[in-house]
Q: What sequence folds into this?
């Protein structure tokens, strides 16, 4: 289930609270998720994945900064791999 806007809705604390009454639900937080907090979300058992526009921000696309988009996507993959060994 998409959990949006994640940070404005209480972030990881809110998801931990929702996990108890909904143990079979997996969430995909978006909205306020970024390279600095993605691992915190991904460490939660109830989180299936995260979404974040920090990797593909409109200004980067408009400026055709695809090397930066690639670097940010690679960073996101590394964050996920570290959070879920």
A:
């Amino acid at each position: 289930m998409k959990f949006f806007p994640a940070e404005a809705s209480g972030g990881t604390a809110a998801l931990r609270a929702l996990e108890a009454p909904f143990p079979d639900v997996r969430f995909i937080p978006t909205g306020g998720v970024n390279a600095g907090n993605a691992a915190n979300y991904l460490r939660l058992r109830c989180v299936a994945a995260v979404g974040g526009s920090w990797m593909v921000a409109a200004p980067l696309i408009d400026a055709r900064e695809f090397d930066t988009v690639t670097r940010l996507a690679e960073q996101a993959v590394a964050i996920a791999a570290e959070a879920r060994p």
About this structure: The CA atoms of residues 4 and 30 lie 5 Å apart. The mean pLDDT is 96. The beta strands are 2-3, 28-29.
